[in-house]
Predict the structure.
Amino acid sequence: MESPLAHSIMDRAVKRGLLSYELIDLRQYGTGKHHQIDDYQYGGGSGMVMMCEPMAQCIEELSLKREYDEIIFMTPDGERYSQAMANGLSLKKNIMLIAGHYKGLDERIREKYVTKEISIGDYVLSGGELPAAVVIDSIGRLIPGVLNDETSALSDSFQDGLLSPPVYTRPSDWRGHKVPEVLLSGHEAKIEEWRQKQAEDRTHSRRPDLLEG
Ligand code: ADE
């Protein structure tokens, strides 16, 4: 969990005090000699389940430190994550993200504490840590001041429901492949019109589902 947050934009944001995070190792709340945090599932079946008590103690201890706006469980059977959800979460003050492991988390914890369940896509990862890092990064870059140019998060793909148009940098002729003429024209309105059209065409061909409704 340290490394995805320890570089470039997120690292700078933390150092500048724009966001902070605390990583908790659940094992410190485990019971017995081996700090057990998982157990066999009732009814049989393969895969271990994360136990109630260590998780409950962890959540309750953290909740004494600060008030949480959301307690989110990262799980493939959660609501599909989207830019709209990231936008909403970026307005909250404190968020707790629970990274599931093994077969899952005892359902009673989900019922008692969890306020939202998020999946980052229809595939299964071996744990919720990477999904949690994805959520932190996507929220973090929306916090004012985190990106150098605040408008750049607004022009991201998905912010206007469209994919981003293609971009180019120097040279204008690279091995015979030329940058579209309009981008060199200096004509702002024409450039904006071209970008809009490219974004629409790209969305239409790659992600027609985004245009529905
Ligand atoms: N844990 C394992 N797979 C996941 C996914 N796709 N989204 C969120 N949490 C997960």
User: Anything to note?
Assistant: Residues 74-76, 100, 119-121, 123-125, 128, 131 surround adenine (CB under 6 Å). The first strand starts at residue 38 and ends at 40. The CA atoms of residues 40 and 48 lie 5 Å apart.
